[in-house]
Amino acid sequence: MRLESRISEEWKELGFQGTDPATDFRGMGVLGLKNLVEFSRHHPNKVQQILSDSILHGLKWFSYAITGINLTSDLVQLLRQGKINRFFYVHGPTANTFQELYVVAFVEFNKWWAQANPASVMEFKFV
């Protein structure tokens, strides 16, 4: 999909809440964007599968972009709390390591969402 402008209805198809994606990045800024871009660039098949799955869930769909931004926020919080330090000790304290952890988290979230079988997207915060 090629977007014609920054403000467009097409952003909603990619999982943003509105027509201007900038409003969805308030909490995670560039890091949230970088994770979405790098995931798409380096793991296009996984991204396509997740996008397809999120749409196929029907009423149980989830917003791809918002989920990605929230996962970035969750991982940053876990890192600040020291709860995932061991992962970085083993794999190296790099941006690439963080990105690969993000990929694993997103793939696992997608599986978890399907297994949790929520009544609707409104249960997102409880899963």
Could you walk me through the main structural features you see in this protein, from its secondary elements to its overall organization?
- The chain has about 130 residues and is mainly α.
- The chain has helices spanning about 10-15, 30-40, 45-55, 65-80, 85-90, 95-115.
- α2 (about 30-40) crosses α3 (about 45-55), α2 packs across α4 and α3 (about 45-55) runs parallel beside α6 (about 95-115).
- The longest helix is centred in the C-terminal third of the chain and has 22 residues, at about 95-115.
- The model has no long low-confidence stretch (mean pLDDT about 85).
Q: What labels describe this entry?
A:
6 helices; single chain; mainly alpha; globular; 127 residues
Average pLDDT rating: 84
Instruction: Count all strands and give the number.
Output: 0
Strand content: under 5%
Largest sheet: none
Give a short overview.
The protein is mostly helical. It has 6 helices and no strands.
Secondary structure elements and pairings:
Layout: H1 10-13, H2 29-42, H3 44-56, H4 64-80, H5 85-91, H6 95-116
